[in-house]
Amino acid sequence: MDIDRVSMPSTSTGKSHLDHRDSRASPLSKNESEEAETDSEESDVSGSDTDDTSWISWFCNLRGNEFFCEVDDEYIQDDFNLCGLSSQVPYYDYVLDLILDAESSHSDMFSEEKTELIESAAEMLYGLIHVRYVLTSKGMATMLEKYKNYEFGRCPKNTLTKEDIDGAYFGTTFPHLFLMTYGHLRPQKAVQSYTPRVFGFKIHKP
């Protein structure tokens, strides 16, 4: 398969972050600083823009990625944990270097189009790794903290009395395994049933 012809969606921000740490560290003039501040306000990145911000922290702090937890570098560096993923993600080696903030000797040779493909592939690979990580004891504990902090939101449904909601992008096993592991968090049965009404009148059941 010609890997250069693989079509992938653009990144969340639509900007290049292949070398996001170096771009933040470069000196700026007054006008450039003002433009950078404007861009920062428009950006989805939240939190501190320090030189030592890792790609994983940057990605998890993007608006819309709040449900993701930060996967340990040690977990990603273990080839066993990533078994089978290299065939699913284009530019796998470059993408893995990007996620782990490893310097690539060929990064300066990439075209803008190829850079965008690598960035998009990095998001996809991290998601695939995340699915596996949240099933581990350490990943489960991390998700428990997010659950306790209501980072998954609360259900607005009337009869659920604002129960916690499990997030998405965690695979089909995680929600059930999570509640089996932490049984005390299992939702209780509703004490009242919802009665649908139209203009205050109960709907007739045929």
TrEMBL record:
Region spans: Disordered: 1-51
Coiled-coil zones: none
Gene3D superfamilies: 2.20.25.20, protein kinase ck2 holoenzyme, chain C, domain 1
InterPro entries named among the record's database cross-references: Casein_kin_II_reg-sub_N, Casein_kinase_II_beta-like, Casein_kinase_II_reg-sub
Family: Belongs to the casein kinase 2 subunit beta family.
Its job: Plays a complex role in regulating the basal catalytic activity of the alpha subunit.
Name of the protein this chain belongs to: Casein kinase II subunit beta
Species this chain originates from: Trapa natans (Water chestnut)
